Amino acid sequence: MRRRDFTILLAGAIGGGQSAARAQQKAMPVIGILGATSPEIPLVAANLAGFRQGLGETGYVWGQNVTIEYRWANGEYDRLPALAADLVGRNVDAIAALSVPSALAAKSATWTIPIVFSVGDAVERGLVASLARPGGNLTGVSFLTVELLPKLVELLSELVPQARVMALLVNPSNQNTPDNIIEAQEAARAKGVQLQVLKAGTESEIEAAFTLLSSRRPARLSSAAIRSYPPGATLVGLASRDAVPTIYLWREFAEAGGLLSYGPSIPDTYRVMGIYAGRILKGEKAANLPVQQPTRFELVVNLKTAKALGLTVPPSILARATEVIE
Predict the structure, then answer these.
(1) Among 49, 294, 323, 325, which is most buried by a count of CB atoms within 10 Å?
(2) pLDDT at 223
(3) Helical packing angle, 203-215 and 232-241, nearest 10°
(4) pTM of the entire structure?
């Protein structure tokens, strides 16, 4: 059996006494950032850079005229409610929620402090009433990544047309996982291929999932899908080790050695979050800021990886690529 018998398919005025008291408490506005993962993850670091860029576009520079306080759950989602409550207790001026679990925890913690988010389907998750009229104290960016699964299946099928079995790698802690599975099943069915679902949220679980996938080598070429972003180095490294063609949602994976990526520019999404946070600090209401959606999607192709896998990228994919890594 050839090693390449597998592929992987893999966001007013205050009265004088109150004003004086508040000035003593905070010399400059404070934004609390609530993250479900860790700042050490490269993609998270890139997202934070995008957020600070957006703040800068509205005139706010960290350490000069705005303070940022970070709270990280490091993958332990059950810690998010307490972390959100801590930010509320510190009377921050706004909260930036970096995921659906973070946004839900922040929403439960406060009805008054403005919250900006970057999530999947904000309406379906109950964060806002509608994208155009969010209402309440939340707004941000909704990138609807679940709907991109059929495109990921299509691209990998175009690259490896002989694929007959697909595996979907999902993080069981991600609240989008049930929808991801349904979308992937429908897309795979439309292509006439089978779908395996593998659940993994930690590095050890990811490695175990790859081991299981390898042990179930079917007679025909298989492909798999990844739907969240546990540590990218693990995924890219295992795919390289096992000579598994992969497609990811985020360009950072292709830049790290993954074969293909297709999806919105997440750092740019966080830049929009930063702009919204700055506008809120200037006095605008979250309820009046419509939830934004990405308008630009990036297709990144890593030709070096394709060559290592013995694959020829079709001209039809290269012609549509936003960037080709050689």
Answers:
(1) 294
(2) 42
(3) 20
(4) 0.71
